[in-house]
Description:
Blueprint: E1 4-8, E2 14-25, E3 28-34, E4 43-48, E5 59-61, H1 65-78
Antiparallel strand pairs: 1-2, 2-3, 3-4, 4-5
Amino acid sequence: MAEKVIFIGDEGEELALYVVEKTRLGGVDYILAADTETGDGSCYILRDHSGDSDETAVYEIVEDEDELDNLLSVFAELLDDLDLEF
């Protein structure tokens, strides 16, 4: 069973996401999360913005095209047994 996290948007809306994979690049933690635990669904790559004093993790959706392309390659390698379409 995948770890489930709740992503809270800027306007307070909640989105339940399932963590598919985690990685750390350049000292920054990233997660690949999906809106379904199995089967077809939407995927999101989130960057950890938590500070040392934060009680809960603070993630932001990666939107920069270059950063996103780099991370997609990394997650595709980590998950070579899954059929990912981007």
